[in-house]
Amino acid sequence: MEEQKAKEKRRNRERMIVEYRIMFARYKKEVTEIQRLNRWYRRREGTLTPTAADQHFAAVDALIFRAHVVKQRMIRVGHRQRNAKSDHRCRESCQCETRGLC
Asked: DSSP 3-state assignment of 43?
């Protein structure tokens, strides 16, 4: 029984680590794309039409939002990992519940 619980904990922890790594790769991809678009904008800043500039800013805003969402998910998964690792039970001093992390 105890051995089965330990295996289950180990599997859950490994799954969370894989999930976190996938999210980190996604976050890194979004940030790289934002940087690439900003470099493109700086090179063409003087020759862009107002419409093209608006399209650029809309695309960057969407990427920033997606990166923010992925980062929040990474925080939640990281928090779950810490809880699983330490068998943490939320106390009154823990603010994870008010942030929707537990």
From this structure: helix
